Amino acid sequence: MLHSNRQDHQKKKHPPPPPNSSMENNKYINVDSGDEVARTEKRILWTQEEDVRLMSSWLHNSTDPSIGADRKNEQYWGDVVETYNNTTPSHRRRNAKQAKDRWHKINKWTDLFHSAWLKARRIYTSGHNDQMWIDKAHHFYVEDNKLLKLGHFVLMDVWYVVRNEPKWITYNNGLKEARKSKTSDNGNAGADTAYKSR
C-alpha cells in the first residue's frame, strides 16, 4: 500500500501529457535538483535581468585584455555566451546565435536611448540634473524614433551598465560612422545593417 501511495503522489506531481501532445517527447526538469538536462527548443522570452547579464558578458569579453582581441566572430560570440551561461540556470541557457541576435537588438535600443540622453544634455545645460535629462531622453527616444515604432525605452538597467563604458561608446560611435558613410554612398539603402556587425 505504501508503494501505491508513492506512485499516486508522483502522478499528481507530474501528470502525464495528453495523448498526441508535443509534450510527450519532452522530459520534466526539476530546476532545483541540479539535473543538467538541456531545455527544449521552445522560445523563452528574455528578462531584463538576463539582458543586463548579456550586455555585461559582452563588455567582459570586449574589455578583458587577458582574453585577446584577435578572435574570429564565431569564437567571440561563443565566449560571450559561455560567460553568460555561467550565471544562467540550465533551463534558460542560450546558444551563440540567440545571444548575438538579442545583443544586437538591446544594443540598438540602448544606443538610441543613449543618443537621446546626450541630446537632452546638449539642449538643457543649466538647471537640470541627471534625472531631468533622463526624463527628457525618454521623450526624445519616442519622438526621434517614431518611424521605428519602438515605444517607451524599458532597458534602463542595461543603459546604466554601459553608459560610461568607453568600449561600448566607441563601438556604437563606429557603427554610426559606418552607417553615415554607407548611407552617403548608397542613398538610404542598408542604413540599419551596421548594427549587425560584431
Automatic annotation (TrEMBL):
InterPro entries: SANT/Myb
Top-level taxon in the UniProt lineage: Eukaryota
Residue ranges of every copy of the Myb-like domain listed in the record: 38-107
Region (Disordered): 1-28, 179-198
Entry protein name: Myb-like domain-containing protein
Source organism of the structure: Panicum miliaceum
